[in-house]
């Protein structure tokens, strides 16, 4: 069973979040402080951490930074009243994976938790295979049959991201945030330039295609035949 740690000093909200997640099949432990969270993590293995930012003594930033130093792959989501851009920038620079602003919509938190866990599972695998096309994230190599494809690092990561979520549309803004940083001054047109280069390199690949979703962004669509 998937195990989640919820760190929130508001006892009522903590209990509600834990109850909602438990009703949907997750094993959940609640902590009211970062220090309590550290104790629970010492004795238990968790698959995801949901944390508030504003907590006494040790705040969520320090908690997330410590977790990230110990575990590069643990999904971390902030659930906080702080909706300002600076707090989001600090969180994402530390290495969190998602950010929700209170008041919390519990249907939305379930969707976000599911997405984070799916992504963590894919990243733990580090290898994608679609027909004859193979990507190995540990080696950063891609093959179409026996032929290697010379992607740059960023091209590789963009393709790996799209193929990790087949048929899911990613906006240009989302891709910019993921691969150029949320505070970048680079135009979203840069994504289009990269996609043109990627498509050229995938010209001989028949197992999927990178599709432009007009007015939004891009998605990878496997060929069914």
UniProtKB/TrEMBL annotation:
Statement: the UniProt record of this protein carries the keyword Flavoprotein:
no
Domain of life of the native organism: Bacteria
Where found in the cell? Cytoplasm
In this UniProt entry, the residues modified to 4-aspartylphosphate are: 52
Record key words, sorted: Activator, Cytoplasm, DNA-binding, Phosphoprotein, Transcription, Transcription regulation, Two-component regulatory system, Virulence
Recorded hits in SMART domains, A to Z, give: REC (SM00448), Trans_reg_C (SM00862)
Q: Name one GO molecular function term.
A: transcription cis-regulatory region binding
A biological process (GO) of this protein is: regulation of DNA-templated transcription
One Gene Ontology cellular component annotation? Answer: protein-DNA complex
Annotated region of DNA binding: 125-222
Q: What InterPro entries does UniProt report for this protein, alphabetically?
A: CheY-like_superfamily (IPR011006), OmpR/PhoB-type_DNA-bd (IPR001867), Sig_transdc_resp-reg_receiver (IPR001789), WalR-like (IPR039420), WH-like_DNA-bd_sf (IPR036388)
- Domain Response regulatory spans what residues? 3-117
Q: Which residues form the OmpR/PhoB-type domain?
A: 125-222
Q: What is its main location?
A: cytoplasm
Chloroplast among keywords: no
Function, in words? Member of the two-component regulatory system HssS/HssR involved in intracellular heme homeostasis and tempering of staphylococcal virulence. Phosphorylated HssR binds to a direct repeat sequence within hrtAB promoter and activates the expression of hrtAB, an efflux pump, in response to extracellular heme, hemin, hemoglobin or blood.
The record ties this protein, via PANTHER family, to: HEME RESPONSE REGULATOR HSSR (PTHR48111:SF49), REGULATOR OF RPOS (PTHR48111)
**What name does the UniProt record give this protein?**
Heme response regulator HssR
Q: Which organism is it from?
A: Leuconostoc pseudomesenteroides
Cite the source lineage.
Bacteria, Bacillati, Bacillota, Bacilli, Lactobacillales
């Amino acid at each position: 069973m998937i195990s989640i740690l919820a760190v929130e000093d508001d006892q009522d909200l903590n209990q509600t979040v834990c109850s909602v997640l438990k009703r949907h099949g997750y094993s959940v432990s609640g902590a009211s402080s970062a220090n309590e969270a550290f104790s629970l993590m010492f004795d238990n293995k968790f698959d995801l951490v949901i944390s508030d930012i504003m907590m006494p003594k040790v705040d969520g930033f320090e908690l997330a930074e410590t977790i990230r130093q110990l575990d590069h792959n643990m999904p971390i989501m902030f659930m906080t009243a702080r909706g300002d851009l600076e707090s989001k920038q600090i969180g994402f620079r530390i290495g969190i994976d998602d950010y929700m602003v209170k008041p919390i919509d519990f249907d939305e938190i379930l969707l976000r938790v599911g997405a984070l866990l799916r992504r963590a599972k894919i990243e733990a695998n580090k290898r994608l295979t679609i027909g004859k096309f193979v990507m190995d994230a540990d080696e950063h190599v891609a093959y179409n049959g026996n032929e290697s494809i010379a992607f740059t690092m960023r091209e590789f990561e963009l393709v790996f991201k799209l193929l990790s979520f087949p048929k899911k549309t990613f906006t240009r803004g989302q891709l910019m945030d993921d691969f150029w940083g949320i505070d970048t001054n680079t135009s979203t047109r840069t994504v289009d330039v990269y996609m043109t280069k990627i498509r050229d390199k995938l010209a001989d690949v028949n197992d999927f295609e990178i599709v432009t979703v007009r007015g939004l962004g891009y998605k990878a669509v496997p060929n069914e035949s």
